[in-house]
Amino acid sequence: MPGSEVPASIRERLPVTTRGLSIVVPLLNEAPGLAALHDRISTFALKLKQRYGLPCEAIYVDDGSTDATLTVARDLPADSLDVQTVSLSRNFGKEAALMAGLDHARLGAVLFMDGDGQHSPDLAEQLVRHWIEGGYDVVYTAKAHRQNESVLRRFAVHNFYSLVNWGARQKIPEDAGDFRLLSPRAAQALRMMPERNRFFKGLTSWIGFRQMRVDYEPEPRAFGTTTFNTRRLLGLSIEGLTSFSVAPLRVASLLGVLIAFFALLFGLSIMWETLTTGKSVPGYPSLVVGMMTLGGVQLIVIGVLGEYIGKILSELKARPIYFVAEQSLRTTSGHVEAA
Ligand code: UDP
Ligand code: MG
């Protein structure tokens, strides 16, 4: 009997707006592993139906794949959960694909998981339990450790978070991933964030509500290799940093104050030397060093300012975050819609 395992007291606590769980899966060239992933998601959905009486839907967002991802997605069986496919008009990036999935979610709560098999549906069960039984609104996963990553990368990641969170009221948790579950009200809050430059980790933490961290070990990718190389990660970091914090601007101001302070000390020491010894200080080397230091610092600061101005420009243009080329919905009852 559906829902028989869970005491009625818990089922009564399900928010009235909860009609089910939408599972959003962004896909870029994930054709080889997609059918297997859908099998695992279907089993997971069946379990949720039995345990909580919770209906599910999977939303496969094809982010401009060049392989057969969309064809495979269109044919996935809607046995134990409804299946939506949303195909974007080109590759807009993972953050945009997640947003597209969020916009198409029809069932209240939203679970984001990668399409490469690294996010296990078994762990997703745990996330759902924290939401339904624990009453948490944002259940996010974080890498338990980074031992298999290089020292340089760990150093960079740590410094990135220190900078983003510097003076921030709501800190972005370090190591948090995109594998996360949002309650209906958290999902709604996320939809209301107007910005074009989306940094999901930051946004889901910024909205507040009751947040819960779950440590996990990502599974190895089922097929292929990661699409996030160092250059893209760096881009995402700059994106996150400039979207979420004015720390770089503050660092620039601080640097200015610091340099001015040392210049003053240096100036005073020159004056002192001239006054006490009567000799004028030979100036050429100090002049060149001073000029070059200042020149470098100024260029860096202009670059930082430029990042923010670029951000203002893209927000001002207010372009849509993505375009949908085609979409379809197949329900467990056999209903089919396509556009
Ligand atoms: N992805 C996407 N659009 C992109 C890049 C990636 O939809 O432009 C998807 C990709 O198919 C996968 C997920 O985002 O389902 C995570 O990508 P990946 O495994 O390459 O990143 P990593 O796990 O290394 O962070
Ligand atoms: Mg991956």
- What does the largest sheet look like? 9 strands, mixed
Q: How much helicity do the residues have?
A: 40-55%
Please tally the helical runs, counting DSSP H or I stretches of 4 or more residues. Answer: 11
Q: Any ligands, ions or cofactors bound here, and which?
A: uridine-5'-diphosphate, magnesium ion
Helix/strand/pairing category: alpha/beta
Beta strand %:
15-25%
Strand order of the largest sheet: 7-5-6-4-1-2-3-8-9
Can you put this structure into words, describing what you see?
The chain is an alpha/beta fold. Helices cover 49% and strands 17% of the residues. The chain has eleven helices and nine strands. It has helices at 8-13, 31-52, 69-74, 94-104, 121-132, 151-164, 184-191, 200-206, 230-244, 247-277, 284-317; strands at 20-27, 56-62, 82-88, 108-112, 138-143, 176-182, 211-216, 324-330, 336-338. A nine-stranded mixed β-sheet has the order 7-5-6-4-1-2-3-8-9, with helices on both faces. Helix 2 (31-52) runs parallel beside helix 5 (121-132) and helix 10 (247-277) runs antiparallel to helix 11 (284-317). The longest helix is centred in the C-terminal third of the chain and has 34 residues, at 284-317. Uridine-5'-diphosphate is lined by residues 26-28, 30, 63, 91, 93-94, 97, 114-116, 118, 226-228. It is a multi-pass membrane protein. Keywords: Glycosyltransferase, Membrane, Transferase, Transmembrane, Transmembrane helix. Residues 22-166 form the Glycosyltransferase 2-like domain. Its main location: membrane.
